[in-house]
Specification:
392 residues; alpha/beta; Aspartate Aminotransferase, domain 1; 7-stranded mixed beta sheet; 13% strand; binds pyridoxal-5'-phosphate
Length: 392
């Protein structure tokens, strides 16, 4: 049997593959410290769980509109208007099973074969995967350690061509934890404002921020009409398995995206959607407590990594990942990923899982307990020492 050619263009997210390998080793009795997967290790707050259970009991077990339940779209529009300082109406909201479909559908709805899509590299692999799948040319926007993995308007301007159709921004950023400053956003917006270029602004880590308040590029003059704002519940409320996210976009694009939803999954699960207003409208103390705990872990992992000779780690400003420079080991990142799992009992991701410019780095997720992080650091230090000794 033969498969469609286009499947050769589709990439993947290797975090799930490393997790599967780690679980297989655990089934054989091996001890593995999980620093690979990007999900909060906390439980979903009780009030949110109760709201979903109530919704099942109230009968929210039927089909609904593809863009989402009207009252939930209203709640999300009100939340984003207040939280970001934007004026968003319900017809601009599409509720999706997780934030990911916003990436796939907004690219499918705006990008033609031959168009160019500028994506951060290293960056979340799904942007590149989907852009390639629709036949676009992917243009890497290289994020450099020397710039704390941020970039400026000049870096972006150098990549613009008449074929540029979309620019993907992701702040706070996976995998580096970098955050674009208000000034970066001003300059990027000024560059894009008068151009016919869509901006996919992936703000899924908007609440996992260690200093200041998150800002969206959509707030800058002229940008709301061209921005697709992605956010969701997975990271903020420890709801990865629920699959609940949303996109904010022009009403016309929202209709296109909803039509794609109709063709693929109809709509996000009705009773899951009904938990959203409770999450957004409730007291946010559990979110604040989670971020405080992530901050404590960030201090521990950054200090621990920088104390290892040959390893250099930039302090992330947001999200829950570190992206240490491991060039001192003299090995390819993918080789380090394999050796860490097989020899050291650490599940981590090669920097190249996030694009070619992730070579020389690995990603650790610190969405794990301090005890596990300390154990991971001990194992990593022993691994680095053994490799450096072997190289001498
Ligand atoms: N965007 C980024 C940058 C992510 O890291 C992730 C998840 O890891 C997503 C989007 C997708 O989130 P969800 O699980 O809500 O689909």
């Amino acid at each position: 049997m033969r498969y469609a050619e286009r499947m050769n263009l589709l990439g993947t997210e290797t975090a799930f593959e490393v997790l599967a390998k780690a679980r297989a080793l655990e089934a054989q009795g091996r001890s593995i410290v999980h620093l690979e997967i990007g999900e909060p290790d906390f439980d979903t707050p009780a009030a949110i769980r109760d709201a979903a259970i109530r919704a099942i009991q109230e009968g929210f077990t039927h089909y609904g509109p593809s863009a989402g339940l009207p009252e939930v779209k209203e709640a999300i529009a009100a939340h984003i208007s207040k939280d970001r300082g934007l004026s968003v109406t319900a017809d601009q909201v599409v509720i999706t099973p997780g934030g990911k479909p916003v990436i796939t559908f907004s690219i499918m709805a705006t990008v033609d074969p031959g168009d160019e899509v500028i994506v951060p590299n290293p960056g979340f692999p799904i942007y590149e995967s989907v852009a390639r799948f629709v036949g676009a040319k992917v243009v890497p926007l290289v994020l450099r350690e020397e710039r704390e993995f941020r970039f400026g308007a000049a870096d972006l301007e150098a990549l613009l061509t008449p074929k540029t159709k979309m620019v993907v921004l992701n702040s706070p950023h996976n995998p580096t934890g970098s955050v674009l400053s208000p000034k970066d956003l001003d300059e990027i917006a000024a560059l894009l404002r008068d151009r016919d270029i869509w901006v996919l602004s992936d703000e899924i880590y908007s609440k996992v921020l260690y200093e200041g308040v998150h800002q969206s590029i959509a707030t800058r003059p002229g940008m709301a009409e061209k921005t697709i704002l992605l956010d969701g519940f997975s990271k903020t409320y420890a709801m990865t398995g629920w699959r609940l996210g949303y996109g904010i976009m022009t009403p016309v694009l929202a209709k296109h995206v909803a039509r794609l939803a109709t063709n693929v999954y109809s709509h996000a699960t009705s009773f899951v959607q009904r938990a959203a207003p409770t999450a957004l409208g409730g007291k946010q103390d559990e979110v604040v407590a989670m971020v405080a705990e992530f901050r404590r872990r960030r201090e521990a992992i950054v200090a621990g990594l920088n104390a290892i000779p040959g390893i250099k780690c930039t302090k992330p400003a947001g999200a829950f990942y570190v992206f240490p420079n491991v060039r001192g080991l003299g090995m390819k990142s993918a080789e380090i990923e394999g050796a860490l799992l097989q020899e050291a009992g650490i599940a981590a991701l090669s920097g190249t899982a996030f694009g070619a410019h992730g070579e020389g780095y690995i990603r650790f997720s610190y969405a794990n307990s301090i005890e596990n992080i300390q154990e991971g650091l001990r194992r990593f230090e022993a691994f680095v020492q053994s490799r450096t000794r072997a190289a001498r």
